[in-house]
Design a protein that fits this description.
The complex is a heterodimer of chains A (about 350) and B (about 290). Chain A contains eight helices and 19 strands. Chain A is an alpha+beta fold and about 350 residues long. In chain A, strands 6-7-8-3-9-10 form a six-stranded mixed beta sheet, sandwiched between helices. In chain A, strands 13-12-11-14-19 form a five-stranded antiparallel beta sheet. A four-stranded antiparallel beta sheet of chain A has the order 2-1-4-5, covered by helices on one side. Chain A is elongated. With about 290 residues, chain B is an all-alpha fold. Chain B has two domains: about 60 residues, no CATH class; about 210 residues, MetI-like (MetI-like fold, Orthogonal Bundle). Chain B contains 14 helices and no strands. The radius of gyration of chain B is 24 Å and the shape is globular. The mean pLDDT of chain B is about 85. The chains are: A alpha+beta (about 350), B mainly alpha (about 290). Chains A and B meet through strand 6 and helix 2 of A and helix 9 and helix 10 of B. The structure holds adenosine-5'-triphosphate (ATP) and magnesium ion. Adenosine-5'-triphosphate binds next to strand 2 and helix 1 of chain A.
Chain lengths: ~350, ~290
């Protein structure tokens, strides 16, 4: 077990800068999820920690020891790959035991460790099979077993569940969570699935174009997104974003169509400022005054309903309400958020206006 | 019977007829050789070889296997030639596989300066078969004093990279993650090669072994040039030397027996390796 410190780490491929300086101190036993859209550099960052990619700038320290110059095998990490990367010609047992054999552990110890991991992952029956004789979920578990038996300082996962179907993914997600509660090994977990991120993470690092947009617990990231990017990336359906202006007294936001929403506290310093107003669909509820929308589409998801509405000015507005649909296409509704559910972002930089 | 069904029967029949004719064309000479090896040289020499076997077989094979002389000339015994051919074919097959797999491993898995230049250099050797570079090669081998040695016989034939391309293409299908997983498990390049790459390549190796063994066994021009002593004669060159220039009559019964014996090792290799292929296909690994 160990901490993992990433200090101002950069990566360039020729003139292209894929990682533009990322800082994070991962605590011992913490589960950190790297979340971001495709191509934002999640894998690159993870692979620099693993030692599979050279580090262009900055420092990576595992357990307080700078590992920039160390080979992957000397970094005391284990990695789980998206396509499992099991050795096709070896049995499940040999796949898990290979790293231990190379490290020269005694046979009995290897046996004990593999048996223990197999018991945790319910792989006992499959130890003599080849990977090609296993289902996707079972292969995934073998890949995890190979990581567990090493008893490393840190686990690295690169989208380990994205090759599984939806049901199995949910199941494996729960298993990983349980495993983490049990083993408490420092983990870095790459995904672009926000549900995985929200459910597994102690903290989430939201990445965009090689920079960390926000680092925080899942609830912090959900409740106080640091930027428009994070606001749009986390939450489903995504947050509504509308153009607005804080009035001259700093007490309310004026939106197109004469809509005016009072702020929870006055923001004198921001009076007159152009802003983007964010409102989560699940925070909108029918009210006497607020957004008047015409219903364009109703999606009944069973547990809740998503209403696609249009404002008089033409902007679309999503509303998510619990339960079964109570309106139909063409209906007119008025919805409003509670004042403390408003998110304000700078119209130019997209950064959150704090306070 | 309707016209259409008789036509479809004809369509079924045609490929069979073609195949049967093809088989006969290929099998007949071999059959004649087999039969010939059981008759005395007089019968064969008169040109009236019957299509059924006779009783001279055991004597003919014994004479061919160990005898130094036929009725009309001196020959190298088949057991000597067979050994030479076996050494040559095995060295060429194993040597080529070893060299190719190693160079393909380097080209496919490592980044080093001029990597592609080296690859093309290897590739170009494919365009220069032995016959094209035979004179300079002979000069080199002669200067090194390797005439009439196994080294002289085999090394120049090994040193071309027929199989490098094939192995490289196969290695490119091995996912990068496998190499990375092995790196994290602590396997260096040598261990990865031995523990992962070789086992994954074994059906490829078996297939190439068959092809290259037969290639080596059938070598003709180079052994003819580089060996002169009887002790170093290979079976393919030996057979042609047995067949005289027309002025002298030939010991056809020995020639036929020798030919049959010369066919056996390649056939054996194909049969043995075939079991490997099937094994590789049955527990196919993705
Ligand atoms: N070997 C390389 N050479 C040049 N550019 C690269 C290389 N590897 C990655 N990149 C670039 O670096 C950026 C980050 O890539 P990375 O693989 O880390 O993305 P990712 O966030 O893992 O995406 P995904 O979710 O699709 O896996 C991408 O823009 C990619 O094009
Ligand atoms: Mg990736």
């Amino acid at each position: 077990m160990a901490t993992v410190d990433i200090r101002n780490v950069r990566k360039s491929y020729g003139p292209v800068e894929a990682i533009k300086g990322i800082d994070i101190a991962i605590r011992d036993g913490e589960f950190l999820v790297l979340l971001g859209p495709s191509g934002c550099g999640k894998s690159t960052l993870l692979r620099m920690v693993a030692g599979l990619e050279t580090i262009t700038g900055g420092e990576v320290a595992i357990g307080g020891r700078v590992v920039n110059q160390l080979d992957p095998k000397d970094r005391d990490i284990a990695m789980v790959f998206q396509n499992y990367a099991l050795y096709p010609h070896m049995t499940v047992f040999d796949n898990m035991a290979y790293g231990l054999k190379i490290r020269g552990l005694p046979k009995a110890e290897i046996r004990a460790r593999v048996d223990k991991a197999a018991a945790i992952l319910e792989l006992g029956r499959f130890l003599d099979r080849r990977p090609s004789q296993l289902s996707g979920g079972q292969r995934q578990r073998v890949a995890m077993g190979r990581a567990i038996v090493r008893e490393p300082a840190a686990f690295l996962f690169d989208e380990p569940l994205s090759n599984l179907d939806a049901k199995l993914r949910t199941q494996m997600r729960v298993e990983i969570k349980r495993l983490q509660d049990r083993l408490r090994i420092t983990s870095l977990y790459v995904t672009h699935d926000q549900v995985e991120a929200m459910t597994l993470a102690d903290r989430i690092l939201v990445m965009n174009h090689g920079v960390a947009e926000q680092i925080g617990t899942p609830l912090e990231v959900y409740q106080r997104p640091a930027s428009l990017f994070v606001a749009g990336f986390i939450g489903s359906p995504p947050m509504n974003v509308l153009d607005g202006r804080i009035d001259d007294r700093g007490e309310a936001v004026d939106l197109a169509g004469g809509i005016r929403l009072a702020l929870p506290q006055p923001r004198l310093s921001d009076a007159g400022r152009a802003v983007k107003l964010g409102v989560r669909p699940e925070h909108l509820a029918t009210a006497d005054s607020g957004f008047a929308i015409e219903v364009e589409l109703v999606e009944a998801l069973g547990a809740d309903t998503v209403v696609y509405g249009r404002l008089a000015g033409g902007e679309s507005l999503l509303v998510r309400v619990a339960g079964l649909p109570t309106c139909r296409n063409g209906d007119r509704l008025t919805v409003a958020p509670p004042p403390d559910a408003l998110h304000l972002f700078d119209a130019v930089t997209g950064r959150r206006l704090e306070g | 019977m309707t016209p259409s069904s008789s036509r479809s029967r004809l369509i079924d029949l045609v490929p069979h007829i073609v195949l049967i004719v093809g088989v006969l064309v290929f099998v007949y000479p071999i059959y004649v050789t087999l039969i010939g090896s059981t008759w005395d040289s007089g019968t064969i020499g008169r040109g009236g070889l019957p299509l059924w076997p006779s009783g001279e077989g055991p004597a003919n094979y014994a004479q061919a296997w160990a005898g130094e002389a036929g009725d009309r000339a001196m020959y190298t015994p088949v057991r000597t030639m067979m050994l030479n051919s076996l050494v040559m074919a095995l060295s060429i097959a194993l040597g080529k596989i070893a060299i190719s797999i190693l160079s393909a491993y380097a080209v496919a898995f490592f980044r080093f300066p001029l990597r592609m230049a080296f690859f093309w250099l290897i590739f170009i050797t494919l365009m220069l078969p032995v016959e094209v570079r035979i004179i300079p090669t002979y000069k080199v081998v002669a200067d090194l004093g390797l005439i009439d040695t196994y080294a002289g016989l085999t090394i120049p034939l090994i040193a071309s990279a027929t199989a490098t391309l094939l192995f490289r293409q196969f290695f490119l299908t091995i996912p990068d993650e496998l190499l990375e997983a092995a790196k994290i498990d602590g396997a260096g390049p040598v261990r990865f090669f031995i523990d992962v790459v070789l086992p994954l390549s074994r059906t490829n190796i078996a297939a190439l072994f068959v092809i290259l063994f037969i290639y080596g066994w059938n070598q003709y021009l180079w052994p003819l040039l580089v060996t002169s002593s009887r002790d170093m004669e290979t079976i393919v060159t030996g057979i042609t030397k047995m067949i005289g220039t027309g002025e002298s009559a030939n010991d056809w019964h020995i020639i036929m027996a020798t030919t049959v014996l010369a066919m056996l090792p390649p056939v054996a290799v194909v049969l043995l390796m075939q079991r490997w292929f099937v094994k590789g296909l049955v527990d196919s690994e993705k």
